[in-house]
Specification:
Order of helices and strands: EEHEEEEEEEEEEEEEE
Number of strands: 16
CATH architecture of the largest domain: Sandwich
Low-confidence stretches: 180-186
Helix content: under 10%
Largest sheet: 6 strands, mixed
Shape: rod-shaped
Radius of gyration: 48 Å
Structural class: mainly beta
Oligomer: single chain
Mean pLDDT: 80
Distance between the termini: 123 Å
């Protein structure tokens, strides 16, 4: 719809300045187009301000040379309401205190001779706040053969692994685990672990007998010495 002169009325005037009001069914974009108010150029002057009440909101336009209006100041618009955003910087400097605690899992020495068919004794001494130890018996390839757990008492923990076949390269891994019986220790550090030195399991000793200057095995076979 084109400009309607009768809809442009004076709100206030002073010192050569006039504040106008204009109501229209046109959109804000249409009223902001160049030359929209040109038809009333004999009444309006450069520097006047027109408050436009359009179909999709209200704006305030400053009149410039050649009946062109400045960039509008939006007073009201359909759609999302205006919001006020505020930001601030708050100084924040955390102060952390900690008490270091040494923790260690120290293996006892293994027996000099572990026979096939006998249980394997494993014991450790504990330093620091550790409540439960899990032990893993591994072969030379690193395969876990058995797993046992023991609660720590008087800084000690021990288990007996079942008998294994003769061979070398056996090792035991001991690591800190939660004691499910005590809620306070349910978040133990499982990365805290120790691996024992390798040990071997040998065949049991055999009884040798002598018969006419010949050494015999327990089962009666001859023993040949080279």
């Amino acid at each position: 719809m084109p400009f309607i002169a009768t809809n442009l009325t004076v709100l206030s005037t002073a010192n050569g300045f006039t504040l106008w009001h204009y109501r229209t069914t046109d959109s804000r974009a249409e009223t902001e187009a160049p030359g929209y108010f040109a038809a009333d150029a004999d009444r309006v002057r450069v520097g006047d301000v027109i408050m436009v009440q359009a179909s999709d909101g209200s704006t305030m336009l400053s009149l410039r040379y050649g009946n062109l209006t400045s960039a509008p100041t939006v007073l009201d618009a359909s759609g999302a309401p205006p919001t006020i955003q505020r930001s601030a910087n708050f100084p924040f400097s955390p102060i952390l205190t900690a008490n270091p605690e040494a923790r260690a899992i120290i293996f006892d020495a293994f027996p000099d001779a572990i026979e096939s068919g006998a249980s394997i004794p494993v014991a450790v001494t504990i330093q620091g706040n550790i409540s439960n130890i899990t032990f893993q018996l591994r072969n030379t390839a690193g395969t876990v053969l058995a797993t046992l757990s023991s609660a720590v008492a008087n800084r000690r923990a021990s288990v007996l692994f079942p008998a294994q076949a003769p061979g070398g390269g056996y090792r035991v891994r001991a690591f800190n685990t939660a004691d499910t019986r005590v809620r306070a220790f349910n978040t133990a550090d499982t990365n805290h672990a120790t691996l024992s030195a390798p040990f071997a399991i040998g065949a049991p000793p055999r009884l040798l007998t002598e018969d006419g200057g010949v050494l015999l095995l327990e089962q009666g076979g001859q023993l040949l010495l080279f």
